[in-house]
Amino acid sequence: MRNFMAALVAALIAVLPVRATEVTLYNLNGEETTVRSGDVKRMRDEGWYYFDEIYTVVYSEDGRSLNALTNRLDEWKSVGWHENLSDVQTTLYSEDGRSITVWNSEVEAYLAVGWYRTPEEVHTTLYSEDGREISVWNAEVEAYLAVGWYRTLEEVQTVLYNENGEEKTVWNTEVEAYLAAGWLRNRPGIDASRPMVALTFDDGPGPYTDRILDCLVNNNAKATFFVVGNRLGRYGAQLKREAELGMEIGNHSWDHANLTNLGAAALSSQINNTNAKAQEIAGICPAVMRPPYGSHNASVRSAAGMPLILWSIDTLDWKTRNADSTYNAVVSKVKDGDIILMHDIHEPTAAAVERIVPELVRRGFQLVTVSELGQYRAGGLEAGRVYNSVR
Ligand code: NI
């Protein structure tokens, strides 16, 4: 054995120096040559290179790779090859918590069988009645709902009022303690046995919102503002004031699209982006929705996840732009449980509101938000259901 090892070592020593002195070099035409190490410096001076100096690995979106001359890299890129593996691969996520990295060319096929592009799409945030929040895989949602978690903050929070009419939003588990301390479930001054109507204002906030808010405050009235998401940045002060004054803020889409024309992704971003923006600016997540044009179908009702609020009195204020006409549209037929449609982006509407609100109060109507109307007249509004009035 010892003799064999000695022979092996001798053989290696005989071979290694020869191999070690051979070097393969490459030129810019893609040719290669093998030279002795002593010749390398001269060859390099003549335009030969080590492999890594002139070749770069490029990748295709369907998983192929090849060595491209670095000085031709732009040509390869122009026909769809990429320098980084991360540019040709995509990580996808499943609703039960798996993730997978696939070639870009495979992505559509994976999406078609239930994989998703972002972790957000496969997670759902759930809430508990004592104020905890948890993010779970979509596949786990039903199990969590079965043991007392909820999909929306509205389900785990309750708005309470004190004798001065101040509002406080508390966790459901805190309600009993607040009631014992004298807080009330209903806004004081509202009498369920007397008539009430919900004024609603669409398409804002806008330059006349403040004037309408002034009028509402002066008459101890509440209303609901169905806001358009892409206006909330510009009219953030008005949105905040609506919230601070206890007005209800509803969702009227992101950019006033006809929601029945949209695919699932566009539809949910119209709704979710508006809710997120209202939450960001005013700290309030809309819990009621009015689809633009009153236009809805099963997909819209399902995606909204909120009650859909239409109207029983259409003032046509946007069309007439006439305060008398808007005033008459309301006072000529208003009755208990009506939901009245106006727009806070027109000056004649603000002028009409300044006459409508005192007149309704004079006639004994209580001006409430849409959710209050639902609470008093129907014991609450149901998500996915459509309301023209609540009587
Ligand atoms: Ni509208």
Question: In words, what does this structure look like?
Answer:
The chain is of the alpha/beta class and 391 residues long. The protein has 4 domains: 17-85, no CATH class; 88-151, no CATH class; 157-188, no CATH class; 189-387, Glycoside hydrolase/deacetylase (TIM Barrel). The chain is built from 17 helices and 19 strands. The protein has helices at residues 2-20, 40-45, 51-54, 73-78, 107-112, 119-122, 141-146, 153-156, 175-180, 209-218, 236-244, 264-282, 298-304, 317-320, 323-331, 347-362, 370-378, and strands spanning 22-27, 32-36, 48-49, 55-59, 65-69, 89-93, 99-103, 123-127, 133-137, 157-161, 167-171, 196-202, 224-227, 248-251, 308-309, 313-314, 339-343, 366-367, 386-387. Strands 12, 13, 14, 16, 17 and 18 form a 6-stranded parallel sheet that branches. Helix 10 (209-218) links the parallel strand 12 (196-202) and strand 13 (224-227). The mean pLDDT is 93. Nickel (II) ion binds next to loops.
